[in-house]
Amino acid sequence: MGLLDSFEKGLERAVNGAFAKTFRSGIQPVEIASALRSELDKKAAVVARDRILAPNTFTVRLAPSDDERMQAIGQPLVDELADLVAKHSRAQGYTFAGPVSVTIRRDDALSTGTLQVDSSTAQGSVSWRGVLDIAGQRHPLVKARTVIGRGSDADITLADAGTSRRHVEVLWDGERAMVRDLGSTNGTLLNGRKISESPLPPDATITIGRTDMVFRIVAQASAPARPAASDATRAFDMFDGGGRA
């Protein structure tokens, strides 16, 4: 099932059949979904480290009559549109620089049956953050040197008897990363290969004891400004396309 097919089925659950008949003239909800998808593809750009950065704030501008009908549906429509953005971004491997927001807004300059989508990346400079994904939890590397192990004095403590108290450390300078075994009893694997010290590329897996840790580099930026309270909006955090985002 395609994304637009999925969107239409979700919309059917949000809008009753009698109301849906009013869309026989003017903008159809699926046309908004298609426009958002096109905007994502058009504005997505490779920025660094093989990351494709896509816009994360969207304003859908509609003619007064179309806006009135869409606002009557309210939050269910906006929720479906925001979910579509998330699903399409995950499918394409796009990354967001901050929280995603979708807003529907009236534009008196537009005629019935036409729409305009404006998009942008969250204001603020994009920076790259190193993180470790461990057992479904994300641990930001907030220090230049992060020690992982079983001991309570480790920066990240693991409940894994197969690890040493101070088993391994990850070095991160904001651009590059390294992993270094700290003389552990059972050793350290990087992508299945035993190492004592090695550069740490994005999406590599570090294994100590029975624990797998995936190193990732994700984009971050300040959140976009919130829209006016009168606009239908959905905002949510999805900093890495699906990866969380």
UniProtKB/TrEMBL annotation:
Range of residues in the leader sequence: none
Domain (FHA) ranges: 146-195
The record's InterPro entries line, in alphabetical order, gives: Cell_Proc_Reg/RNA_Proc, FHA_dom, FhaA_N, FhaA_N_sf, SMAD_FHA_dom_sf
PROSITE patterns for the chain: FHA_DOMAIN
Ordered alphabetically, the record's keywords are: Phosphoprotein
Matching PANTHER family, A to Z? NUCLEAR INHIBITOR OF PROTEIN PHOSPHATASE-1
The identity of this protein, by name, is DUF3662 domain-containing protein
Q: Which organism is it from?
A: Microbacterium schleiferi
